[in-house]
Amino acid sequence: MTSQSRKKTKFQAPRGMSDILPKDQIYWDKVERVVNKLAREYGFKRLDPPILEPTDLFTESTGAFTDIVEKEMYSLRTKGGDKLTLRPEFTPSIIRAYLESDLSSLPHPVKLYSIGPIFRHENPQKGRYRQSYQANFETIGEQDPVLDAQLIQLFFSLSRELGLKNLITQINNIGCPCCRPAYRKMLVSFYRSRKKGLCSNCQRRLQQNPLRLLDCKEKECVQLAEQAPQIIDYLCDECNSHFKNVLEYLDELEIPYILNPCLVRGLDYYTKTVFEIWPEDGEGRQIALAGGGRYDGLVKSLGGKDTSAVGFAMGLNRIINLMKQRNVKIASRTRPLVFLVQLGDLGKKKSLRLFEDLRRAGLETTSSVSKNTMGAQLAMADKLKARFALILGQKEVLDETIIVKDMNSGTQEVIPLNKVVKEVKKRLKKSK
Length: 432
Ligand code: AMP
Hints:
By secondary structure, this protein is α+β, with helices and mostly antiparallel strands. It has 15 helices and 16 strands. An eight-stranded mixed β-sheet has the order 1-5-6-11-10-9-7-8. Residues 89, 120, 122, 127-129, 132, 134, 288-291, 313, 315, 317-318 line the site of adenosine monophosphate.
């Protein structure tokens, strides 16, 4: 998923999408293992929604005037006439599943996590893909600001276990339906008198999604955003105290953060807390590793009861890019304990069964049944750093024996075939 040199072949992966090659699986294994472990430790249960969802689910939750819905969705109409979309984010799917499968009857908060691909038709560039992968966490059912802080804590625990330090949270509070309308009005009036100074995109967005103007990256808009009224001055008491509490919890946890009054996250459903986590040193300019926030109105707007919730998603491709960039070392898989060498027709035939016996006995075993010479197979055993080679030729099969070769010392010994598991285990124990 990072920069891969690609050949011009008859068919190629679609633009912005790529294969995760065998050499990179070590990173993906590690990330998935750490996500699963920490999710369990923090009390999250896994939920895997389908990749396709009804298009309206995203239009009505992510928001009709957001970049995702306006420009980036991969939508299709099925032969039966259904309008479906490849998920561009997890949250709407998770809330749909929470309501559809009656997870609301579980004790609250209901904590759910997912790992999988998302699809956004963006302009591909380093760290921005059309198919990327996220680990997504949602805590549904309670308003307590401690839950917002705990999700950020979870991200920092994850990144620490993945060997990533020097990250920083950007955080803001974008108000609620009680205080945001007044702020929105002030913002529109501020920008209206300066409309000519805005980029064409923001001129268009001014009516539909004015908060979005604050985090536009165009130079002229950045300058204006610095002078724009700040939401913090318009928050109602409840949002103010929520924000204060979240920050106090972050202080308590010693989680690094900066207040970013221009962080709005652009999706319709967010209320109160919004946050993103970035590399501190600017290595990943424009490359947030994770983002999320509180969305106290979404469950109700999708047909459920009035239910608060908070969540975040981390971008696994970007996490892995950063692990590589910072040379994070991952302990490679343990070397195979046993390499099974087979010689001749009889040896090959018997080795198939013996491989299964060794594997079932818990000995990590490798073989190469398509290589026929002793030299080629021993060279492979050596390359894989196998601890023992077991050599099964015509003679050994007839004698019901097998040769055990210690790959460290080079010594070898003939032993009865039916004792091979016991013998290898004994030798392994001794050599520890
Ligand atoms: P968002 O909710 O859009 O902020 O997404 C959460 C996280 O997912 C981001 O901080 C990124 O790390 C990752 N992400 C989102 N879109 C992409 C993309 N197109 N390519 C790679 N990573 C992405």
